[in-house]
Amino acid sequence: MIDGFDPAHLPMFSHLETERVDESVLNPETMQMTTKTVEKTFLVEPVGYLVFTLGKMLETVEMAIWASLFAVLMSLPMAWVAARNFTPHPALYALARSFISFLRAVPELISALFLVLAFGFGAIAGILALALHSVGFLAKFFAEEIEAADKVPQDAVRATGAGDFAVLRLAVLPQVLPSYTALTFYILDRNIRMGTVIGLVGAGGIGQELKGRYDMFQYDHVATILLIIFLSVLALDALAAKLRRKLI
């Protein structure tokens, strides 16, 4: 039943198995149900599902990376408005803080439910759900880091006649960059883990595959998925720790 199947060129580590199966068929002459034995050939791929699941885990990691990237790009300008000592206007400060609190108050799983209705099943809904919730965290922490930055370098730059943006770029950003880097890595790690959860509502990634196999009572496949998630999180934690040591 596989299109273009060539028994002489099987996938790696796979083999063919033939089984004799009893089937009930209708005899057109006697109009009676009879049983006949037929041979069926199956393609057995011992690592086929493992490769498929690794692809789904890669999709989850890609979702987390894109969501984290969008969250950082959205949080940087929002943090400037939400920082009390740099906001252009008190009304903008209140509006930005309220919007950030709203994004942080809505869990990814809830927003993913509505985004799946809007964009359908798949990775787009998952990326948006992770990104929106991440903005709620990153913008808040980025703004608080700006507010807590040392005032002495800022006063020195202001004494040269520089404006707020120049002060933010020259006196504040060098101070907060290590914290920003650590927070970004934390959000990336969190999005990878949450990406497996929002997939349960159809928002793409390995979580969607996990939900489907669980609903079909295929617990051997479920165990494979859980093991891959566990090993992937361990590997990504080790990679993130190594990158943090180099950058911070």
Task: Quickly describe the structure.
This protein is mostly helical and 248 residues long. The protein has helices spanning 48-82, 90-105, 108-119, 123-148, 151-158, 164-198, 206-215, 219-247, and strands at 15-27, 32-44.
Architecture overview:
Strand 1 and strand 2 form a beta hairpin. It contains 8 helices and 2 strands. Helices cover 69% and strands 10% of the residues. It has 2 domains: 46 residues, no CATH class; 200 residues, MetI-like (MetI-like fold, Orthogonal Bundle), CATH 1.10.3720.
Highlighted features:
248 residues; mainly alpha; MetI-like fold; 2 domains; two-stranded antiparallel ribbon; 8 helices; elongated
CA gyration radius, whole angstroms? 27 Å
Oligomer: single chain
The coarse silhouette is: elongated
Low-confidence stretches: none
Q: The biggest beta sheet, please?
A: 2 strands, antiparallel
Q: How many separate structural domains?
A: 2
Classified in CATH, the superfamily of the largest domain is: MetI-like
Helix content: 55-70%
SSE pattern, N- to C-terminal: EEHHHHHHHH
**Given the helix and strand composition, which structural class is it?**
mainly alpha
Just give the CATH class of the largest domain: Mainly Alpha
Give the secondary structure arrangement, pairings included.
Elements: E1 15-27, E2 32-44, H1 48-82, H2 90-105, H3 108-119, H4 123-148, H5 151-158, H6 164-198, H7 206-215, H8 219-247
Antiparallel strand pairs: 1-2
